Every structure is written in C-alpha cells, then in structure tokens.
Hints:
disordered C terminus, globular, alpha+beta, DNA-binding transcription factor activity, DNA-binding, activator, HTH_AraC, transcription regulation
Amino acid sequence: MLDGRQRMAEDFRRWMHYLTPGPAHRRLGLVCLGVGHLEGRLPTVGPRALDHHVAVVVTQGKGWFSHAGEEPVEVVAPSVLWLLPGVRHHYAPHDDTGWTEWFVDFTGPAATAYQDLGFVDAVSPVTPLTTAEPAAHGIGRIAQAIRRGSPYLEVETSALVHEVLVALRHARVDEDAAGDPVLTGLARDACLPISVAEHARRLGMTVADLRVVVRRLAGCSPKDYLLSIRLTRAKDLLAGSELSIASIARRVGYDDPAYFTRIFTRRAGLPPSEFRAQQHGGLASAGLS
Length: 289
C-alpha cells in the first residue's frame, strides 16, 4: 500500500522557487519573493494570513476560496485569487477536478499602490479572467530567471512582477479591451475648459457616481485624473512646440496662464518655462535643436 506522502505525490505535482531580496533591492518599491506552479488535487491552504501579497492564477479547474472569514465563493478557471497582507484566507480545488495554478509572491510600497489603483482587487479577491495565459507566462519567465541565475536577478524579477500585474488587469472579465468608456470620455474631453460636473453630465452620470468609477478604475479623483492628462499634454507641447506658455495653457483648458503655471509647478516640481528650458537644453547638447 502507498503511504500518505506517496499518495499525495501521485495526486499533484509542484515546483516552487523563493527569493530573499536585500534592503537595496527593496528600495525598488516592488520585489518578488517567490513563484510556483502546482497542478492536480492539491491540499487545502489555510486558514492562514501572510505578511505580503500573492497572486494565485488558476488556469484550469474549479474550487473555492474564503477571505477574511467570509463564506467560501466558487472559483472557476481562469481566475486570480488575491491574497492580501494580514488577511486570513482559506482555499482549495474541488477533490473531483483539482486545478492548475501559478503563483507569485511580492511585496513593497508599489504593491500597496497597485492595490489602491485597483490592479489588486481587495474588494473582490476572486477575479474572473478572460485568459490566464499572459500572467502564467510571466510567472514562468520569473521561474526561468531564477533557475538561470544572474547578478541582476532581483531587479529582473521585480520588473517581471510589474508585467504580471498589468497582464492580470488587462485580462479581467470586466476590463474593456478598448478602454473603459468613462475614462475614454474623460480623456477625450480633458482639455476642454469645463467642470467635473459638466464632464459627469456629458457621460450621463452624477458627480458622485463619476467619483466612484474613476476611483475604482484609476485610483484617483476625476479632478486628479483630468489634471494628469492636461499636464501630460502640456509637457508634450512645451517640449515639442514653440507655442507660448499662455497658448499652451489655453490648449490644455486653462484661460489663466498664471494659474496654469502655479498648478504645473505644484505637480511637476518646476515651472513650465524651466521644464521647456531643460528639454530644449538637452536637445541642443545633442545637436538636435
């Protein structure tokens, strides 16, 4: 007869690799702590809580997931399970089907930013996907880098975690491949000299609903979202045209050049004239002016 460990080995297969980034690597803002691949009738995980984030990407099979003591919810591949720092979780595939999963452990201030921006869904920690292939491929690339070894390993794996998180956001079932119509509408009209209330009216929404949607999708208020688009456009015009600062201010929605200068300086850290001088100075030194 097979003992328990032999039966377990026949029921599922797995590989896992872990990293221990040093203080300098942690200053990158996001570091990979480990990756793994498991398939088959896996044992139940938890209840437990970790001190870092984990994305568990389920590529095949079905199971269940419990988060923060709530009732278990059904998991159907392709999906991602978000394990959040300090939050107890408990999950497993169904015994009759098992599942295939790829996971990546990560931490750092940028992980919190990704959560604030909605890339890591703390409200609905079981997120259905249209496809898990890009994220699973990214996790596989992290594993290949670890096996290969490199003096730049922690930096390389950090960059790949960013790619995995972006791939998971693009693959969400509720993500419009053409872009969210609310954000698309705001971006289209961002440089018009109109209020947030008028933007909401054009989109057929209340201001309160607009705030909720933009906060969920972009991690900021509608005013900040519009401001970022305006100032990005202003930087392009400052660097790539000979338009006066007053003309650029009007093009990005500000009738008062002095107000535009104040808000540009506050957000960019230097006045528009200095930003332009820096960019033109760089071109001149390169012989491109």
